[in-house]
Amino acid sequence: MDLIVLLIIIAFAIFGLALLLFPELRALCMGGGGIFIKKVASTPEGAKAAYDRKINELQEVYNKSDESLRLAVGKFEESKSELGRLQKRLGKVEQECENLVQRGQMELATVKAEERQEIIEQIANVDEMVTKYEEIVKEATMIHEQAERALEKQKQKQKKQYKEWKMIRI
Prior knowledge:
The chain is mostly helical and about 170 residues long. About 90% of the residues lie in helices and about 0% in strands. It has one domain: Helix Hairpins, CATH 1.10.287.
């Protein structure tokens, strides 16, 4: 798969996660402007069910963002590892080329020089991938942290509301 296609897919995935995390963004994208209507349940049980449903939705978003973050980190680490492997290979090929020149085997040295050039091009491509994956990891981390905060905020909100309900019932 081409790098550009992969990056576009990841960008769409991150945008999709942002839509899931932020209902306001979703409403803006759907043309809803600044109109946000909150439904408040009329009974404590109904409100608890609404909180539970919202927490489950946020948990799902958090789980998806966690999965995306793990995937991005994995690809980033894989690319860094590939870069290191190519750099070691380049050093080895350069040493072999130098040895061939010293022994006067110019034809073989030319072949090694061509191999060296291919490796340099591969290093440039992989280095670009590492840079892009690093950006993707930063974005995925930000989304993951936002999902975690939203989930914790909703859980705290539910706990607070539950305590208030208990006090009202007493």
